[in-house]
Amino acid sequence: MIQTPEQIADPIFSGSLESPERELRDAESTLAQIGRPEWWFASDVIGESFKPPQGDETYLLVRFAFSLTPPSNHEVEESRLTAHLTCPGAAAQPVVFDLFPREVLEETKNDVKVKLEPSLKLSEAKLAVGSVEAGIHIPTIQPIVTTSGIGGGDPVWQYRKHRRHPIIGTRMAYAIIGYPSAADKMTIQLGLTATVRGRFGFWPLRVPSTAEAQLVRTVP
Amino acid sequence: MGILDTLSRLRALVPLTFGLVPVPPSRVDPPEDASACVEGKHYVRLWLTEVQHGVQTEGKNEGLAFFARSGFQYGTQLVAIPTFLGPSSFGTAASATRLSINHALTPLFPYRGGGINCSGALLHTTGRAEGSGSALLEQLSGRLSSAGFSRLLDLSDIISDGIQGVMRESKLHLGFASAIGRDAPAQGRGLAPGYFVVFKPSAEAVIDPETLCVMNGSLRVIGSGGFPGDTQPLPAEKIEYLLLRVERLSQRPEGAVLAEIGTAWQQVMDAARLGDDALIQEAFKRAMSAVLLSRDLTEPDKDVGIAAMHTQLSKMQIAMTGNAGASKEIARLGNIERASVEAASTAKEGVAADLAKERQLERAAEQAAATEPFPEDVDHTVLVFECKPDTPLRAEIDGLNVFLGDTLIKLNVSNHARRADEAFSGDWRFKMTNQGTELLEALSKDQRVWEPYTAATQGIADRRLRLRFRGTLEMLRVPFEFLIGRNGREHLVLRHPLGRTVMGEGVPFRKRQGLSRRFFNGLYRRGADLNILAVASNTPPELPRVDHEVRTLSDALPDMFRAKGINVRVKPLLSEDATYDTVINELRSGKYDIVHYAGHGVYDEKAPEESHLPLHEARGRSGGIKPLKVPALKSALEESKVRFVYLSCCVGAAQGEPFKLQDYDFLGITDGLLQAGIPSVLGYRWPVVDSGGEKLAIAFYRYLAQEGETDTALLLARREISENRDDRSWVSPVLLLQA
Fold it and tell me: How far is CA B410 from the centre of its chain?
């Protein structure tokens, strides 16, 4: 069972998000962290029942994480975590098979157990307490989350403010990704944007352009 | 039936502010037909129109009240003073009868050209139906019409007699009694220019006339300290009053103003000779109080007096310290400074000697002015709009009241402030223009408000028409910088120099002159340095331009002013060295005329006095961040000689809502500086981009060195930055000018 932590242990970015106009002389800034993507071979997670689809591809379960801390009197209205997946030099490119959470609109979900099916789908499982099955444990998932990018190479998790659940603190998400085994490696370029509402209205923020290089990671 | 009974009946009948109320000063301009009135040929007369109201109860006349509208007679034409009491104010109650009688209040006196300032008006009521009020006025006007007077100031005797007659008859009291009448000390006889108060205390109120003073056009009580800052507003329920003001047609010369406060000024000079800074400050404070609280000086006289005190004290100090550069300058100016010092040292010999020296000083100063770097006689006009919520708009041109609206200005300050903040993001130009147009409409309910503007723009370059918006501290939150001109396209802030002046409760007197041509010329004459503290504070998040900004200014400012013959000394504190302790110590040193800060600015919306400028705790940008909060900033600067603070940081001009003063002492950084007595502050309403802040600062100082005035320099810097209209730095700055 993969346990989903509640804090980011190994951030690859930690700092203030930047406005499009850059470098405002305003000390009040929205702090963000982006976690190093963690990954597992799908075959290891699923075990013996794993039957890879046709074709010569490697399948990974990848965990993404970020956190946001807006200044006091500010609220994050919306935030987007993006990942641009590429296999440099390869003819075929990575494909997202599934994302989790895919859509959470109303209620907070606690103590969620997710099963990785042999068909490479991530589905919420109703497992008996104490049962040991191949899967992921997520302590809490707060609304509102929507996603896009299944079947492509650019998955997006979009978070919107819920009336009872501000976007603050850490969010974690999973993806099942297949990439051509011939490529040997896959590159993930992470991105994070947020729209923050404060005294001066809605203000779009992003990871500083100077930090973009450190958001590129290669797996496995 | 007593006066108050009659008043209450009249109030019921006539829906207006009736009773004894402050009378706003007015300006009366000559009629358009110039042939009707020629300077030196025609005469002017002050007249009153008495309007009587009969109050009927059960068909009987029971009361009679009158008030007098004043005006001037130019040649053969009568021009009414635009007061707050228009004809429509009388209502149309069928039970009221009306009778108008014109009284000539003064004999003719020579017309001296231009408009005439008149602040006096009479408003009186009597409870009896016999027309005693009318008789009194008749008596008064009869006396005023007596022959033998040809100059306005000589009318003082009769006016004072008349007023005293009214007082006796109606059992009202006269404040400032010592200034009225033939034994008035200042003039030797007659009614001196200034405010006079007619008041009627309530039964339980004990009012000592000697404790009253007039500030900002309203009556206040002087506290035990005797300083202007100690005054308290008069509880409205305790006293009804009427302000009368008599003004001169021209300002007094400096010498005459200083003579007015002879003893207090002599103490300053004595302290200067002793070279005791603390004593000088104390004496100077008292002398300034004496000027500001003087009952005999008009407001323009007071300005002249304060400026003269600064100039003369500086000269005196230079002479006493034997500064080599100053001595050279003294030699160059011949008798000017010697005359000043001699005048001071011989002050005990009497006012006459002082005045003689003063005249000598003035003559020499005029000669010196010919070579000064900033001509002070540049043709410019200052148009002040006094704008407060739910109050009619007032306008002044060059200190003269030219307009008093009769339509209340409906401004929802909180709403405008919130929208101005939110206009920062997104399509900010659209939002800003929209709000500017709405503000224009709100101010233009009475279309006549634009008449002074139109008049002031005639024959003068846009940059020479200097706009001021004067109002309470709360009004700083209203974005007048967004205002769109009447053609619906141009931004006023790019057309005219635009500044703000804060007035009202809790606003201290400015303690010193702001930056001005006069100030720079003074530096030039004395060979004194312009001292500038420039602080860069690069705290997280990183601001790479702030150190560059301070370095650039440090290098460029001396060159900028060198062309004008003014020596500039800049003390740069770059981020490496700008620790909290260093900055505080420099601010407290009292050495600087200008403080420039480039860095982050934090406005705390919940607790505005927690707003601050973040500084490093230790050198080398190490240690933690220590916020320089508003109270500490105020404390560090209140004893300084700083005349201008430039906040090149985010939200330096942001202000909290006034109710926050219930829990906190300050509403933001600018408010703290205002409370410290800093006469001029430039700060941003919005966050500012690092590079934009730097560009505006450098452009501003370049134009300041050219123009010698902060508002004009800001206008030209705004124009330069606005070549890229998408850069908010041209609209975001707010300039506070406590002049």
Answer: 24
